[in-house]
Amino acid sequence: MEKFNCIIVEDEPLAAEILQDYIKQIGFLELKGTCRHAISAMELLQQNRIDLMFLDIHLPKIKGVDFVKTLKHPPQIIITSAYQEYALLGYELNVLDYLLKPIEFARFLMAVNKLKAPTDNDSNTTTENRQLLMADAGERAHIFFNVNKKKVKIYVEDILYIESLREYIRVVTGSKSILIKFQLSQIEDLLKNGKFIRIHRSFIVAKTRIDAFSATEVEIAGKEIPIGRSYKEHVLNSLSAGN
After folding, report:
1. Which domains does the chain have, with CATH numbers?
2. What integer is the mean pLDDT of 97-126?
3. Is residue 228's pLDDT more than 80?
4. DSSP string of 2-58, one letter each residue
């Protein structure tokens, strides 16, 4: 069964708890995080492939509707609100559904059943970009990336590190650096072969290309790359173990 990654953006703890409970009961939903305001939600959207966002209208710092307008490629959205008068505005934003609090489970189920499977446009990439072509008849594993209307082949074993730049990533090899419209979480999914490790919310590195490391950074081809605090324990354990 295909999973839909979702987040909750809700500043009322009880309302968030109800949504969390409902999501746990739906086999095709996977909760990636709960945020109390839009700024935290933005970080999650940048770090993960999110297919669905449960969004409250009244949020601190920036209102839910205003937040949606700032997103260039928003995920599918289900608005949750205690105020019926905002329903029309929600539909103008092309939301999937508008749920009035208190939300009953049956109504919640109706809303999530409207979910559409992620498409190429939803993930901001193409099938060619997403597909990792593994070695066939002796050919090395590689990925074709769309760069300036061309498909550029990058051999996986040549990648030194990958850096996230908001809606883009920079893929760096020993001989070139290319900038493509891609999310770091998407390339992370492609490279789950044990040879790469995410060391920071903005960096994935090739483990075999690390020349040196400390508790705060790794060094690859003369570049010092920071280790994020939340990744530190996993990274140091992995590198120390040599696997």
Report:
1. 4-112 (3.40.50.2300), 127-241 (2.40.50.1020)
2. 76
3. yes
4. --EEEEEE-S-HHHHHHHHHHHHT-TTEEEEEEESSHHHHHHHHHHS---EEEEESS
